[in-house]
Each structure stands twice: as C-alpha cells, then as structure tokens.
Predict the 3D structure of the following.
Amino acid sequence: MRILARVAGVVLLACVALAGPAMAQGTIKIAYTDPLSGPFAQVGDANLKQMQYILDYINSKGGALGKKFELVPFDNKSQPSDALIALKSATDQNMPFIMQCSGSNIAAALIEAVDKHNSRNPESRIIYVNCGAVATELTNEKCSFWHFRFDAHVAMKAEVMARALPKEVTKVYLLNQDYLFGQSVQRDVKAYLAKLRPDVQVVGDELIPLGKIKDFAPYITKIKASGAQALITGNWGPDMNLLIKAGIDAGIDLRYYTMYAHLAGGAVAIGPGGDGKVRSVMSFNENIAPEIGNKEAEAWTKAFRDKYPFDFYAAGFRTIFEYLQAATNKAGSVDPVKIALALEGLQLKDFLGYDTTMRKDDHQIIGEYFVGVFKKGVKYDSEKTGLGWGTEVTVLAKDLEQPTTCKMTRPTAN
Amino acid sequence: MEVFLVSLLNGLVYGMLLFMLASGLTLILSMMGVLNFAHASAYMLGAYFAYTISQLHRLLAGAGAGAAAVRRDRRRHRDVRACARVHRNGHIAELLFTFGLAFIIEKVVQMTWGLIPVPYRVPAGLDFPLFTIYGTHFPAYRAFMLLISALMFGAIWLRLTRTRIGLVIQAALHHPEMVGALGHNVPRVFTTVFAAGTALAGLAGVIGGNYHVTEPAMAFTMGPIVFVVVVFGGLGSLTGCFIASLLMGLIQTFAVVLDYSVADLLQWFGLTVTSATPFHEVLTVPLPRIGALLPYVLLVLILVFKPRGLMGTRDT
C-alpha cells in the first residue's frame, strides 16, 4: 500500500513536471517560419530583426495576460514542405500562433495544413498569422477561419497602384514571378487597370522563373522595345533588386511601379541613378511619421534605425502584434479558438494613428496604404544611399475596402 | 535590329563574365578531375573582398586590380595546403571537401557581411554611359568587363601554350606519371593550377560583384550555370570553354527577347496547336519562360550526343 502510494506520488510529480513547461514558463510562443537561408534569406532575416524589435517593445508594454510574447524562428528555405515541418514542431509544442510572410505558395499550403490539423486535433489548435503572403485568393476562394492576413492583398495593392498611375502614362509593361503570387499580381493589375484606367494599354506581360534570373538586361531591352512608359512588377528579393538595377544602368526612360522595392536591399540596388523613378506600394516608410508630424512614431522607428543597418519597413508587424496582444487580452486565455473569435472584427488605431479593422468576413486587415517614391531630399535616407522614400499618395482604409467572396466555416461552440 | 544589337552586347558581356568564372573551373576540373563546388564561392568572396577594400581605400577608383592581387595571395596559401592534404585521399574526398567548403563560405560571408546586399558600387571613374545605342545606355563598366575578360583569355592562352610552365601543365594533364618521372613536382603543379583557377574566379567576382548585386546568394545563383559551361565546353579545352560561355550568354539573352513557343514553330510547318492538341500546355509555353532552363537542356543533349563536350579532349 505504501509502495503504491509512493508510486502514485512519483507519477503525480512526473505529471506536474511534464505539464510544467507549458503552464509555468509564462511566455506566449509565436512560431515564425520564413526563408532564413538561400537566395531569399535577406528578406526573412530583415523580417525577423524587425519582429524582435517590435516584440521587445510590446513585451515592455506588458505583453498579454501578464505573459511575454516569444518568437521562435524556423527556417523554411522557401519550401512549403519545410514550412509544414515548422508547423508540426509548433503544434507539438502547443504554440498558439504560427506566422509566415514570404511566399503565397507556402501560405496556401499552410492554410490547408492548419485547417486539417485544427479539425483533427482540437486540443492543440493553432492560428496562422499571415504577415505578407498576399495572393488575393488566400482571403477569397481559399479563405479559412484560422488564417488572419495582416497585409493588403494583391488586388488592394493593384488598386492603389492603378490609382497612383499618372495620367500621362498610357503604356505599361507587366513583369512578374511565375508562381501563385506573381500570377495574382498579373491578373489583378490588369483587372484594375481595365476598371480604373481604360486608357492604359498593356504592351507587355511577362512571367519569369522565381529567383533564377541573374541578368535582367535582356528584359530591359525587351521592355524598351515595347515602348512602355511604366513597368509594373510584384517582384521581390533578388528578382526585384537585379531588375531595377539593370533598368537604371541602361538609363532608359521608364517609371517603375513596384510592390517591394522598399524592402531590404532595394535602395542599394536602385542607387542614386534611380532618383524619382521608382515607386513602391507600401504600408510604411520611415518618412511618413515626420511627414504627418507624429513625433512618437518617428522616435520609435529612429531607435530601430540607430540599431540596425537597414530601414524599418515593417509597421505592419507592429500592427500584427498589437492585434495579437489586444485579442489575447480580450479572450482572457491563450486558447486559439477564443483568440481567433476575439480577433474577428477587432478595430485598432495603428501606431501612425490611422484606423484599421480585421474584417470578420474574410480575416483580411483593412488599413491605410501608401505609395512612396524613391528620391533625394527626404529626412531619413535608405540604406545609406542618400536617397529615401517620400510619400506620394495615401489611401485610407475606408477607400480600400474591396468585396470578398469568402465563405468560411467557423468552429461550432463546444 | 535594335533589339538584336542590344541583346548581342548584353549576351557578350554576360558570356564573358561566365567565361571568367568557368575558365578557372575548367582548368581545375580537367587537371584534377574534381568538380570544385566551392568555385562560385570564390567568385562571391572576390566580390566581398573587393567591396571591403574599396571601402578602405575610397580614393582607389579602380580598386579591382589591387583587390584581386590581394585575394590571389590569400587564397593560394590556404587552398594549396588544404587541397594538397585532401588530394591524397582521392577524388570523392576532394569533391565532398569542396562541397562542404561552399556551405561554410556562404555561412561565413553571411556572418561577416550580413544577409542584405552590400553597396559595392562601380568605381566613379567608370560610372558613365560609354555610348548610347537606340536610346539604351551601354555603361562604360560593361566595356571594361569585356576588356578584362578578353585580356584574361589572352593571358591564359599564351601562358598555357607559349611558356614553359604551360607546357608542363599541359603535359601533366595527359601523362602525370611521365611528367613526374621527368622530375617535375606534379602535385605542386596541380595545387598551383588550383590556386590560379580559384583566383580567376575571385577576379570574376571583383568585376562581376558590382555589375550584379553583391549578396550571400550570389554564389548559389552562379554555381550551376558555370558547371554547365564547363561540361558543355569540354574537358581540357580553354577554347571550348570560351565558346560555351559566349553561347550560354547569348542563348540566355536571346531566349528572353524571342517571344515564340514550340507551337509557333509547328505553325510554320503548317500544324496548328489548339487546346485540343495533346501536350498543348507544354507546346504553347513561350521561350522567355523557359529561357533559364535552356542551358541545362543543352547540357543533357550534349552529354547524350557528344559526351566529351564541344571541344573536349577527354571523357568527363
């Protein structure tokens, strides 16, 4: 009897010890998976540094439920299969969130996997926080209750771009990467040009293999020959940097309308030769805060700038963590179902002071968006080039609310 | 005509850059029978060292030459020692050695210079359009690249065919035992060639790093195409390597501007491809979308029909 009691005691102790890490360590873990090696590593690395900076700030403001947020990075080498391995590790450790930014093909795989996992394993559900995979489908045909997107999708960016295209531009050339996202850009830009700017003619429409091209000079020749006045591209990473560099080097008379020229490495690739030629559709740049006179936001981004050798562009990430913080506090627990329900329809002012909403219908954030131009004479230059991003157009959330076709199934109350 | 001329120039520049990279590798491969996986890493290191040196000596407009000289010395010392040791253990060991080295170098570069591209710029003295052709600038720097690579081709060729050391190298290529019996230090010849070949890749990095973007992924993106050039050109043939480089440069450039597909070709023969035709998805893919694949297609074809490569003197 005594032995039995002792065994029971040991077992009990073991149980407590096993349950301990999940309960007692007091951090809310966020798995983050993006390319941290390979050709797109610079993007993932820059994201990670900015997230860490933001999380330190959020945690200094109290985290959520008295716990701190903790970021756990997983390298996915730009491969969906590796992202799924990261998801497995995250759910094994009962993390409530998985975050992924780069690659809509990976995002599509994650949405599907998270859906399956959550329906089969109600005890270790997870929320997929999408911080930058922007193919329009993801919050339309492919939408899911467990997926929350915190960046404007391609159709929204395309609309902003079509609005920003000056009147004198009537011939445009589209060049995009040949995968889910690039094809989404191609389709949506054409659709919004047809709708908002019927006078614009698409003189070239091209898809390039993702991350394979080393020399873009031939493409520039082709674009020049087509007579295009503007190039519209959703390229990112080296595909973006090499393209613009080749164009600027060739000195052809062309305007560049991009979605990602403002990310890490972009400014160096454009260089002083690109003064006033390159525009980018963006959620933030370092000069917005001084332009609108928001001292607090300016000081906060400047502190990042003093610490790291590249620009802070991820204001959207701060919005993400503020949403997670608010939703977790509102839910009163780290139960992913409760947090997800709390996130739905949540409204916050972002740190620049603009209104944002996490739309309930499709879990798409609706926030303000900017078009920046790369030029001389701005307060904060980019990557020590002497040039930086100045804001040309500001589109407010209320003007960017596009309809959705999403019909999601919500978990039944249990 | 406009597109043709500009593309021709672009193709030449790219081809010559490939040649600078591939010439070193072809020497090493034909001599030691080892695919040096770290070859493109030397290209990357060349670019990074040149960047760092150009930062230190801002006054040196043409830092390229100086940087290459420094690099050559540094690498020679290290490689010669390491390779001589590994070489004894046979080719597979050497292959794996360079394979691992490539990864280590990439990581070291990431840790030293960071993941984002470094602002390695074309020196101010060469940063102007040399001439304008149909409204497209031809930067002086590209002409400089053409010049350097042409000079390099000339120098290697003269060295190999007109000097004593060249003769020894050529002899060691075919009959190493005989050359050894004649009293030449064959392992030493091998390691010298290895160091020289790697230095050539470094030089390619010095002038290619600011033409493209200097970043940790540059070795990864350049590596495969260089192997294609070497195998396509044929082992032991510098001329073959030269022709293959130019060919690959031109093919990749022209594939982009020629908007045709197999369907268009068939149309020419009176066959119309519709959505009902079998494989119509494949047949209607335009050339630019598969342009980056063409060198590899050529590689497969040449290995099937002419396994020795274009002008190769030995089996792969």
Notes: The domain at 155-290+368-399 of chain A is CATH 3.40.50.2300 (Rossmann fold).
